[in-house]
Specification:
147 residues, globular, 44% helix, 4 helices, alpha+beta, five-stranded antiparallel β-sheet
Amino acid sequence: ERERERQNQTSVSEMIVCIAVVGQKNNPLFIKLHPGEEDASLKIQYLLHTSLDVIEDRVSGRADDSRDPFLGQLYPSEEYKIYGYATNTKAKFLLVVDDNQLRDTDLRGIFRQVHDAYVKAVSGPFYESGTPITSRSFENSIAALMR
């Protein structure tokens, strides 16, 4: 069972094109592109920016008792699908993938791992709130999700 889960995680990580962390004021805190996707950087940044509006609409339209941080698919394009996750501190995580065969459970698992790494990074004594995340540990955690 664990082997199957690990293999599934591997196949999911191969589909990840970009992971982005955006702050409360929609300022980019961290953006990691999959190696080989650098040529699409501008297009991906545009899609991320466009998705922020969708996040704002969904978060503001949620009932107060809705605590599920997973926002589902935010924005489809011809090549990519963008999924979102909003924390209770108004940080946002965006996941750009190149496959529409992913299940919500797979995506939720990835977002939970990003959230865990984020909490560790911003809880450090040297992190200043709202500034780009430069933690080597955070970078390594995100890179491991994209392998």
